[in-house]
């Protein structure tokens, strides 16, 4: 059960959710879990196939447009559809909405990398068959999406007919009443070529403004009678089989695009098709790939199969969505749906990046290199926003330009530049990659430090940063947001440190960094205002947060959440109400800036005014509850993360999975229950026993070592699996680890 996600009932209310839950991807290509045979005519499926970073730009329409507002918005485009395969038994079309379903079982195999749907169906005219749909998106051949359909006739079926389609003309999903979705511009892609040659079906399509092209080269493997017809940019292939025996059809779909494959996309697709192995071998390759992934990335618990399933589900879908090339990242919904239009947010650096940093640092490095590739766009955005120097990374983007039209909760979230700098620093601390420091880290830190130096100013011996928005989107355009100031302080401290180390380097000379400039970063960091309320003993979220009236939570009904869908932003801004962790998040990321008592009092205060309307919030409260010894709260908030999508807790899983929350599940376990922190001096642990679990174990990669950590029977066991000896800190006690010599410590 814990390696599979299954459903055995055809619940129409759950169909759209299951399309997201059952999606398959590999970081390049993502395919929603749509039914091959289709749905009822009156059912609106979110039919989707996506290529990471393949997008169109649409003009943003403003009632009133002011200087610096972005002109265009980038949107992930739904691409060529190859999912459809109709099934007919003696002329009767198979449909789960007609006839009798004798058995239905749909399973996602997370340890093997494929999904299978098995249906035993009796038609309205009593024709009967067992149908099996197996699909896979390959981790080994990133361009490949394959479907295998097996039909086993049960009654006296004379003929089985399978009709396979490829559609070049597709549209995106829109929903006008939810700001988290696109409300217009359904048509982003235009087919321009469709042909069949030498047993290969070939379709191309292009976006208009971005001028990106996608192609699909498809072939079938079968032993039936075959015919083909063209209907514009839709190609329909019919396969007829004798009903006296089983029918089988395999559909190999190869996608190429101009971002990765350059020109001659059809020829590139043909070349990839020519090298494909048979379907069963593809499944074996998937298993081998995932065996290695799970060897390092699995988190195993004993005592709760439901949570174990949720944990593996989240890790598996992160792997399926994370970009693994230089032109892509990981969007808020991954490749599972169109929520947030395929944009990359700060979610990547703070919630998702750490998972791969500590388990698969090469993937983590790729995410950083993609951000680095957008540095020039961030420099340009800083100038558009009135800064003389520096880099302002966008709130929402795919290739670098800002795509957020609502600046109070978008562009004003300057903290993303510090978040990105923070992740670059974390990568260096974990890998000690000196070449990375010199080629990427230094430049990012210098340019982001310049942003902060130009954004803030000195007054009465303190450095202030005004008119920004922190992570809490229910409190916008404020002065001295604690999170922003704390992260900016850390950013500038490290920029000064890197300058001191590399002051004679060619890079520092090219960037024109002066001694006075670097000294100012250090001074600004030292004198950064970190708001603190003496009476409450807490870090204030910003200068005015505590002067506002507390939201009337007692008289707010469940139907009014999330508040952003039911209240005007200005109404929310006037109250003490947090959408998500803000100051509490800063206390996690840069915990050394506050003492434990301040952290405790702040946690207690903000917990009562936080709605957790954002899925990014629960894990942070869980992590900090663990730090503070609030074990029941830590476990409660963790529970909210582990199965958020499987159980559709936020009621919008249909639009795609919550990738940051999935990363947050891992964070809550590793940084929360195990108490991991990455310090300049190395790894530090402050683990806590989870009473609900008999056993809890996971592995980490750190500086070319592989370490396993197990919490069991009131002890923590540290085991160095691979690599040279390593010292780690256990509750401030140095512990030396050597291969073959596990070390046990009492919790």
UniProtKB/TrEMBL annotation:
Swiss-Prot/TrEMBL keywords: Hydrolase
InterPro entries according to UniProt: 6-hairpin_glycosidase_sf (IPR008928), 6hp_glycosidase-like_sf (IPR012341), Acylphosphatase-like_dom (IPR001792), Gal_mutarotase_sf_dom (IPR011013), GH65_N (IPR037018), Glyco_hydro_65_C (IPR005194), Glyco_hydro_65_M (IPR005195), Glyco_hydro_65_N (IPR005196)
Gene Ontology molecular function: hydrolase activity
Coiled-coil annotated spans: none
Domain annotation Acylphosphatase-like: ranges: 665-747
Superkingdom assignment: Bacteria
Pfam (any one): Glyco_hydro_65C
Family the entry assigns: Belongs to the glycosyl hydrolase 65 family.
Entry protein name: Glycosyl hydrolase family 65 protein
Native species: Alkalibacillus silvisoli
